[in-house]
Each structure stands twice: as structure tokens, then as C-alpha cells.
Amino acid sequence: MFRLVFTGVIALLAAAMPVSAAEPVSTVAAQVNEKMVKIFGSGGFRGVTNYTTGILVSSEGHILTVASQTLETSELVIHLFDGRKMKATVVVTEPELDIALLKIKVEGKKPEEPTGLNLAYFDFDESAKRPIAAAGDWVFGFSNQFEIAMRNEPMSVMQGMITSYSKLHGRRGIFDFPYTGEVYVVDAITNNPGAGGGALTNRKGQLLGIIGREIKNSLSETWINYAIPLNAKVDLRDGDKTVTVTMPEFVAKAMKGQYKPVVKPIVALTAGGFHGIRFVPNILERTPPYIDELYPNSPAAKAGVQINDLVSFIDGEPIYSIKAFTDVLRKTRPGMTVRLEVRRGDNLQSIEIKLDEWPKGLLPVIPVPRGGEFPKPGDK
Amino acid sequence: MTTPFRFLNRPTVWFAGVAGSLSLGLIAFTPPTTLAQLPDSVKAAEAERIAVIAKVKPAVAAVCFFGGTACGSGVIISDDGLCLTNFHVVQPTGPVMQCGLADGKLYDSVLIGTDKVGDVALVKLLPKKPGETFPFVKLGDSDLVRAGDWSLAMGNPFGLAIDFNPTVTFGLVSGVNRYQPPEGKGTLEYTDCIQVDTSINPGNSGGPLFNMKGELIGINGRGSFDKRGRVNSGVGYAISINQIKNFLGHLKAGIDTDHATLGASFSTDSEEGDLSKVFVSSMLDESDAFRRGLKPQDQLVAFAGRSTTSTNQYKNVLGIFPKEWRVPLKYRRGTTSKEMLVRLMGNMETVKEREPQPGDAPMPKPGQPQPGGPPANPGAEKAKQSPAMKLVVEKKGYANFYFNTLAQDALLADMKKNFGDFSKLTGDWTLEGNVQLADRGGNVKLTWIDDKAGTTEVKMSREGIDDSVKPLGENVSQAELALPQGSGGLLVTLWHYRLLMTQLRDGLNPNGNVSPGFVHGGSEPFYPPLANGIVSANINDLRVDCNVLKTKKGQFEAKWYFSQKDGALLGCEATFTKEDDPCELYFYDFKEIGGVKLPHKIVCKFGDKVFATISARTYTLGKK
């Protein structure tokens, strides 16, 4: 009880921080900056940035960041706060936490050897023991958003408040988001390119969370500014069992090279069942799913779908784009029946389609999954 | 991804955005405490912040088309109504616009100077009654700004305030010394700028960024955008006030200023693990840096007193200077390093306009609005009736030559006060004294003698060696003009000095403003060697900020440097050809002779060497 009251007082003080804190924000910012790295990897096309941010969690050069597509390369490069440019490798990724652990490679040393870097870092375990920050607390966001900083140029620092500590449920077709646990929602605009993996700290520069990836609510066309808290926790299905994984466990095991991510069933990565619909060219981020062509004798053609129909719902879920349609269909299997609502002229038509096996030679290219096990060069 | 804001987004776009974020259903924040419970220090800080905002608010301007349609923001920096804004704000308004202040009034205003590359413009508000002064803000020192400092941005975002009462936003400085590459043909480049999370939106362009003391530390003008459209995404940029200070002399003199290049390109090595170093990769042979001895593969250690370990940092430092400025440069070759002064070249003259190609889109006709470009000026007709129109003189190379004439007037008044009236002293001149050359010294006699046709011959006699030249005579060779040999043209430069002092503007500018031989050149630093001849270890210790006068007669051009502190004439640079170093004279020890003041010690420098030091015993100035 006493402890609860005590943390309440801390939160109250934190809310009134900008003047009562001993250290100027500029001093705090300079200290945090030394524990952060700029990460450069793959991307640079189709809206995927080839840069992101990371935080140092060991003096040896372990880096925590968001499990983004930027990491999908064997040529990761990081810039330290003092301008040193070094190589890094992904140790392990946990897609359900949306987090990855990297380690700096020192030229001439084996991965298991000590790097001897002796860097400033956030003590993750200590940080995670601190009470959860409350709505109304002042926070700072540190990141290399928009790739503004290179080499020894410092991270961008932003200020804001925690507006909520709450679950953030990804919903198919609304936002594609693997992590289902609690997050800090903040009013600082952290949702910018390259900010993912940045640090969310309190007024004293103590780590509270890791700035999340860019996600958008496709219903309201808004982006959400959030950070994954250090105590993030997810329940994973491992075969028939459910295992709970926390971020501190992940970090501790991953740093020892002992973390094994739970392998997800491969079904999510297939093309799903065959329907036989071809849409108009998918040139916009949200191209409306207008039907351009139907394969002769395909399930859709047989069920009475027509060219120029606009797909509006699948099994009652609203569908706004070709991508959303593909995402839903990817989770189906041949033999399943899906119900489409299509707009034809002024009317909605309800059509049931029994999905089929894909004809040989027609299988579409499967998009790269976000997070998780990344394909290695040579993988198909 | 970063772009200057242009004009107004429709407010409806914004409201849609607000509605959208509400629909996310985020939990609203309830303060955990009431005002009465707040510590006194919090209340005191809040009261202080309110007081600072109240203090600076009257000086914040809404820069508008004539008639009051909002374009952007600005801030007044002097009691006579000088107001800083962005170039991209005044680009569509033309030379006459109106500025609205928090008093609710619109003031007719006129464009004075522009910095297109740096996206800065200076305008002047005209008082409603003669002699009326304006509220203004103090310029701060942006080199003291740190990431994590609090800041206030003020202005007129989205043209919200119809009564011109500015909007204030509050936030953090997210970074300093940021570099944002140019947009378009080498213009709107933000170097060494201040990055803020303080909300900056369309319409904030040109408005002030203040520190928490209410000192002006920057001019807001740009943001990084990605997916939200052209509204604040937490990343705004302000042009640092210290950069603007470097250009202010030029802006006040009505100049369409240009930024600088060193005439060299640099590359960064990319060794793993190592800190990066910046090396010269190629050079223009007409650049001063090349003539001073900089070579490819030299490592750039420091530029203008700041260390350079990345090309961004180099671009940051280079970008804050106007062309033709001289700044110290330190380089390392092998194991030795050397500091030297280099003259910077113009930036725009190296950006070649592309010839129109077949298949290019046709150029829009004048007056026809360009898609996505500046909107048509709705106040163009009304502006013609404004008294501010009388303060506009167009001339190539100038934003408004009228203000150059005003700056010349001020300089002429100072010259008359400091050096006396030379107008009657147009007879022959003689200087007798002593000369010290590199290897010998002795007596010297200098004469300026006009022949019957009025052409002046300057002659120097030293210990039996005579050199003479008639700069405006017929068939004068380049070698003669450069006499005495090794001086780079001491005689011609002395001829130019007499011309300046005796003829002033009316003599050098006989055709009025058609072909000016007498213009104000803004401000530049000048580095006179110490009078005792001791070479200073730190070049920057020699720096004196000067007003520059540019004169031209025939092929001869010269720049004269007057100390901003006391109006003293510290020296000049005379140029014969762009390919050669100028002849530099440094003046010391001004003494009065019959009502006028003349330098009694003159140091002549050419390239990296002092050619001669002349000490005058007597001057004889003939009348006509």
C-alpha cells in the first residue's frame, strides 16, 4: 500500500517536471544520446526505409530495436554516438514482441569473443524493474527519424506525455501489427520513418519503452504514436502449449544466445485458396478492389462474380483495398468457403465462393512477412 | 522528404485530421493535480513563460498579400520596422505587401533584401505616422542553443488569426546544426539549422523561434513530412539566427544575396570503426582555395573555426556564409597542418541553368498560375497605390536597389565625417616617406599627377627605381597594371584610392544608377594584419566586421572595408582579373592634413606575401 502511494507521488512530480528537475533537458538528452545507435540496413524503396534506430543494452554492443524490414540484410551498419561506423548482425528476433536483438561486430573478432567496446548502455533489467509510467507523465522520445542524423550527429529528441497505457490490438485490414500486449500511447509524434527502435524515457533519461514501428489505422487514416514497454509480455502458442514471454526474459536470453523464437505455423505465409479474381493494377496504397478480370471456370467466375464488381466485404469484414483482400485470403485454404459482398451498380450482391487449389503456374509471389524469420539469400 | 511550407492548407483538411485522431478513441488525459497543489517553482516558471510571450508578441508579424490575405509570418528586429521572414513567403507577394501585427493593424511593407538559397527575406514595415516606432525583439545567440532546450514558435499558422494575433506553440529543440539539402535549383537550402518538435505548420513560415528568454534564435520555415500531408509531424526546422546575422548587412543593403562555395568538392572516407575524415576530392583552379595551396587529398580539419568530420558538417559551416567572405580554413597534408584565409566563391553562379530540351513542358505564361506553384497575387493591383511603391527600385543583383542607395548615403555621411572633404583636393598628390620591402628598404616618393587630358599617372620612386602607370591610358599592358612587380597592382590601387576619396558617388556614378561604379556591398569580415607586424596564431583574432563599399572604374574594381565599430577605413582589395589574386592594402595611422585624414602607414599584400610597408612622412595634396 505504501509503495503504491509512493509511486503516485513520483508520477505527480514527473507531471510537473520541466522546471523542477535538477538536470536541464539538454544534459539528459546528451546522456541518452550516448546509449543510442543509428541503424542502416535494407530498404529504400516502396515506402520501406533503410534506416532505423536502436538502443544499447550492454557495454559489449548489444542493440535492441524493432523487428523491421530494415534488418533484412547481412550488411547491417550502425553509427555510434561518437561517429564510429561499425557492422552489426541480428542475434535473434521475436516477432510477437516485435523486437530484435543485434550485436555489433568488431573487425577481427569472433561473434562469441568479447568486443571490448565498453559502451554506455541502458541496464535493461534495472530499467524494467521501475514502475510502469502513468498517463500524464512527461516523456522524451529519442530517435533518428527521417535519417536526420548521421555519424556523430545526435538523435532527435521530442517531448510529450503518456496519454494511455493500454492494449493495442492489431486487426486485420485495420492495421497489420503482430504485438498484442500493452503499449504506452504518447502524444509526441514518434510515428515517423526511422523512429522505430528509438528510446522512450522519463524526464531523467531512464528507459521506459521502445518506440514502435509505423502503424496506421486504415479506418480513420491516422497513425498511432506508441512505445512497447520494457515489461511487454505476450502469450505464444508453441504447438499445443501456451508459453508466456516477457521482454526482460527475451533480452536476457538473447544476449546469452539462448533465445529460440517460437516457430509460427507456416500457413499464414501461403497464398490461401484459389478464387480466380484479378483486380485492377494495384498502384495506390489503398487501391479499391475493383475486379478487372476473372479466370475462366474459376471459383469466382462459377459463383457469378462479374468484371467491374467492387469487393466490399469478406465474411462481414469491410475490405478497402486490394492489399486487405489479399491479406484476408492468405489466411484461407483450398476447400474453404468465403462470402463476398460486392458492389455492382447501386446494389450489394452477396456471393459465396468455394476456394480451390491453385492451378499450376498461377501461384502468386508471396509477400515477405513483417517481422519474424527473414528469408535468407537463396530462399524462395 | 523535407520541404518548405508553402502558403495555406485549407483549414478543413486540418479539422478532418483532428476528427480522425479523436476517432482513435485514445483515453483523454486528466491532470493528476490541481493548480493550487502545484509547487511554487512550477507556477513561477509558468508566469515567466506567459510574461515572455506577452513581451515578444507585439513584434510578431503576419506577412500578407496586399489586402491582408495571409501568406506567412515574420518578426520585427528593429524599431524602424525591419522584419525578417522567409524568402518563400515573399516570393508570391512581390516587392510591396502588408504585414499585420498583434495590434490588429495592417502596415504597408516593402521588400528590402533576399537570400534565396537560405530562404530568408528582410522587409520593412512603414509606420502609420512618420517617426512612429515599432516593437521589436532582441537577436539571441543560436550557437548557445542545445538539443533539449525549450522553445517558443510564434506566427500565423493556417492563416487562423484574422486579427493577426499570433499563435504560440511550445516545444523542445530536437537537434542543432542540422543540414537539410536544397529544394529546387540550389535554393532553399537549410544549413546549420535548428530542429524542433515545437509545432510548425503552413503559415508559420518566416515566423520567429524564441528561446525561453524571448530572444530570437531562428526563423521557422521548413519541416520533414512523410505521410500526413503538409502539417506538423513533430519535425520542424528553423534557420539559425547566427546564419542570418552573417547576411543581415547584405539584406539591409537591398542585395539579392548569394551563398558560397569553396570551389572544391569533398568526400568522406568510410573506414569501418574509425571516425570519418573529410578529404578534398577535386578543385576548381579559379578558386581562391586552390590559389592558397589547397590540393586534392588534403584533409579538411576545420572550417571557419569548426571541426569538420563529415560532409554534412562541412556543408553546414559553408552554408552560413555569403559569397566573397573570407574565412579561416585548416587542413592537414601528411603530418603537417596549416591554417589560412580563403575567399569563398558565389554559389548561384556555379549552378548552371539547364537549356530547355525538346519535350519539356511549355513555360507558363506570365500571370498564369503554375500548378502547385505560388498562387496569383490577389493584392497586386491595390499594392500599386501604396506609398511603399515609391521605395522600390529594381536592378539586377538586388532585391531592392532603393535600400542600397540608402545604405550608400549612410556610408557617405560617415566618410565625410571621418575623413573630411576631399572634393577640392583634385590637384596633384605627393606622398614622401619610407618603404620597407622584403629584402630592402629606403626612401619612397609617390605621386598622382593628372595630364592635360585629365588622365592620372601614378608613379613610385624608390632608391633610383621608378615605376609608373596610367591606369586609364591607352595601350596599357597587364604587366604595367601590376606594377611594381610582385605587388599585384599597388600603383593602380593607390590611383583607385584617390579616385574614391575625391570623386565619391557622384564622380564614380556619373550616370546615376544605370551603371553603378559605387554600390554598398553589405558586410564582410576583414582581417588586417597587426600594426606591429606580429603574425597572430589565430586568424580569427584579427577579424573586424566591416561594411563594404564596392567601386568600379573602367576595368578596375575595388572593395573598401569600413569598420562597423567606428567607420575607420581599414583597407581595400583591388581586382584586375578574376583569375588573379587581388592587391590588398591595409591602412593604419590616419592623421589629419589640412582638414582631411589620410593613412600614414600602408601595408601592401599580394597572395600570401607582404610586398611593401609604406610609412608616410608628408602628404602634399594639390587643389585645382
Shape of chain A: elongated
Q: How many helices of chain B in DSSP terms?
A: 10
Radius of gyration of chain B from CA coordinates: 27 Å
Task: Write the element-wise H/E pattern of chain A from the N-terminal end onward.
Answer: HHHEEEEEEHEEEEEEEEEEHEEHEEHEE
Adjacency order of strands in the biggest sheet of chain A: 1-2-3-6-5-4
CATH topology of the largest domain in chain A: Thrombin, subunit H
Please outline what is shown here.
The complex is a heterodimer of chains A (380) and B (624). Chain A is α+β, with helices and mostly antiparallel strands and 380 residues long.
Task: Give the secondary structure arrangement, pairings included.
The complex is a heterodimer of chains A (380) and B (624).
Chain A: H1 2-15, H2 17-20, H3 25-33, E1 36-40, E2 51-56, E3 62-66, E4 76-79, E5 85-94, E6 99-105, H4 124-129, E7 138-143, E8 156-167, E9 182-186, E10 199-201, E11 207-211, E12 216-217, E13 222-223, E14 226-229, E15 233-238, E16 241-246, H5 247-255, E17 277-279, E18 291-294, H6 299-303, E19 310-314, E20 317-318, H7 322-330, E21 337-344, E22 347-354
Antiparallel strand pairs in A: 1-2, 1-4, 2-3, 3-6, 4-5, 5-6, 7-8, 7-10, 8-9, 9-14, 10-11, 11-14, 12-13, 15-16, 17-18, 19-20, 19-21, 21-22
Chain B: E1 2-4, H1 11-22, H2 40-56, E2 60-64, E3 70-76, E4 82-85, H3 87-90, E5 96-100, E6 106-115, E7 120-125, E8 150-155, E9 167-180, E10 190-196, E11 208-210, E12 216-224, E13 236-240, H4 241-252, E14 256-257, E15 260-261, E16 264-268, E17 278-283, H5 288-291, E18 299-303, E19 306-307, H6 311-318, E20 326-333, E21 336-343, E22 345-346, H7 380-383, H8 401-419, E23 429-437, E24 441-450, E25 456-462, E26 465-469, H9 478-481, H10 490-508, E27 518-526, E28 544-553, E29 556-563, E30 569-575, E31 583-593, E32 596-606, E33 609-621
Parallel strand pairs in B: 6-14
Antiparallel strand pairs in B: 1-12, 2-3, 2-5, 3-4, 4-7, 5-6, 6-7, 8-9, 8-11, 9-10, 10-13, 11-12, 12-13, 15-22, 16-17, 17-18, 18-19, 18-20, 20-21, 23-24, 23-33, 24-25, 25-26, 27-28, 28-29, 29-30, 30-31, 31-32, 32-33
